[in-house]
């Protein structure tokens, strides 16, 4: 800030400098630690999952109904832990800047359609109908794989937190020079007091249905980081028992 005399003349300035070398080192150490631990955990978990599949297929001999039930629980929990490790590694790399966005020009409408196709089997399991309402001429410059990751995450959440026979709509349009994507569902909705925390790490809305649905609590935090690294914004609009709409924007 400037130091001024009684006639508003500039006499000098005060500058505050902060050495962030130590903070950068700590961030690097944290990222390396997460990477190492993730690798050490993922390898045995992958082996456990493979062995469980073999037993369930009967490759090691016949198993009874009770054993099958327990093995299926083991397989599901192993999947959940593997997903948690992947998400931890992802958010750590994003926060430390180790993931560089691979920017390219592409047709956003085509990518959104691919994302809908990817989750169709999950939607059919709950008898959901997924609709597309997309402007066919949306071109963006972004990391295609990361944008797919965001959209699939939002679609998967919509499917998980919408009761059976619900509806999900994916829409996209041009707004003030930005491409705006919306994933809307007819689900349970999110309490207003929680909506501001939703994109923080390990945050999940507290209601009966979310307690039943498995998740890492990192998906939306990862989405937020990816969108913001593209210069966009992400937010939610929701009403209890009426559903939620998740929006994000990308520079045109």
Can you give me a brief rundown of this structure?
The protein has 252 residues and is an alpha+beta fold. The protein is built from 7 helices and 9 strands.
What's the topology here?
Layout: E1 2-4, E2 10-13, H1 21-56, H2 65-96, E3 103-107, H3 108-125, E4 129-134, E5 139-143, H4 144-160, E6 167-175, E7 178-185, H5 192-195, H6 208-212, H7 219-229, E8 234-239, E9 243-251
Parallel strand pairs: 4-6
Antiparallel strand pairs: 1-2, 3-5, 6-7, 7-9, 8-9
Helix pairs in contact: 1-2, 2-7, 3-4, 4-7
What keywords describe this structure?
252 residues; alpha+beta; Helix Hairpins; 2 domains; five-stranded mixed beta sheet; two-stranded antiparallel ribbon; 22% strand
Provide the residue-averaged pLDDT.
Answer: 85
Q: How many beta-strand runs?
A: 9
What is the radius of gyration? 23 Å
Domains, number? 2
Structural class: alpha+beta
Strand order of the largest sheet: 4-6-7-9-8
Share of β-strand residues: 15-25%
| CATH class call of the largest domain | Alpha Beta
User: Alpha-carbon distance between the termini?
Assistant: 37 Å
Can you identify the CATH superfamily of the largest domain?
Answer: Histidine kinase-like ATPase, C-terminal domain
